[in-house]
Design goal:
The chain is of the alpha/beta class and 249 residues long. Helix content is 39%, strand content 8%.
Length: 249
């Protein structure tokens, strides 16, 4: 029986597998997503899919295990969109995370990585505050907060259902991206006043790119998307490795 299990998804692991993984490297990733509308071409759980996939890749390359995705994200300007279920109260959002972190610390985890694929402003602010407060109050386990839109080397900027999120999901879960659900860019090009792809017109259900904030996803480029994924993976691995090494200094 192998003592170095290849399974890294915590919910699929038996206790002996968890123990072996903990002995190898006591890191746990906590992927954070949301349930929200991303346009006709993308699934409503996109943020969680991308966050979990990047966490799983890091766990296999760097070490550690991955918690199931938390799909309850903080609300923002798109909270009224179809099939969007978001939390409005910071204390409600943070409570489950504090419980999770306390228990992970009890189990001997040394580094918890809060990795969010949902990057609304309120969610980012809440997670920044949580990271700071946790690390001020606790010494046995450290928290590292990462957001998918904060990689400084990424050539594409974070968006909502547009070219960034479409490109990333197309690389990770290609069957979940259905660009043909959108009208062709030739027949119905984007109509963005003053070139503003983030304007209120994109929240109008009559707009061809309703619910999509950012550059037109129909301009998807596979090579550009692969570069984005490679860049994000390299960044996550480096940040986690550095944080873990700093624990021993």
């Amino acid at each position: 029986m192998s003592t170095t299990p290849t399974e890294v998804c915590l919910e699929r692991m038996l206790p002996y597998q968890i123990q072996a993984r903990m002995q190898h490297m006591p890191i746990v990733y906590v992927p954070l997503g949301a349930i929200e509308y991303h346009g006709l071409h993308l699934p409503i759980g996109l943020d969680g899919f991308t966050a979990h996939a990047l966490c799983e890749h890091a766990a296999r390359q760097v070490g550690g295990m991955v918690m199931p995705t938390n799909y309850y994200g903080m609300t923002g300007s798109i909270g009224h969109h179809p099939w969007t279920i978001l939390v409005d109260d910071e204390s409600e959002f943070e409570a489950i995370l504090w419980t999770t972190l306390r228990r992970l610390q009890d189990f001997g985890v040394k580094l918890s990585v809060l990795f969010t694929g949902h990057f609304g402003r309120r969610q980012l602010a809440s997670l920044e505050a949580l990271e700071e407060r946790w690390n001020q109050e606790n010494q046995e386990m450290r928290v590292l907060f990462l957001a998918i839109n904060r990689c400084p080397a990424a050539k594409l900027q974070g968006d909502h259902g547009a070219i960034f999120e479409t490109s990333l999901l197309a690389q990770l879960h290609p069957s979940l991206v259905q660009l043909d659900r959108l009208p062709s860019v030739k027949d119905q090009p984007a109509n963005d006043p003053n070139g503003d792809s983030w304007g209120p017109h994109r929240r109008d259900q009559s707009n061809v790119l309703f619910g999509i904030l950012g550059d037109d996803p129909r301009l998807y480029d596979p090579a550009e998307a692969k570069d984005l994924l490679d860049t994000l993976q390299t960044w996550v691995h480096a940040r986690v490795s550095d944080a873990y090494q700093n624990l021993e200094r």
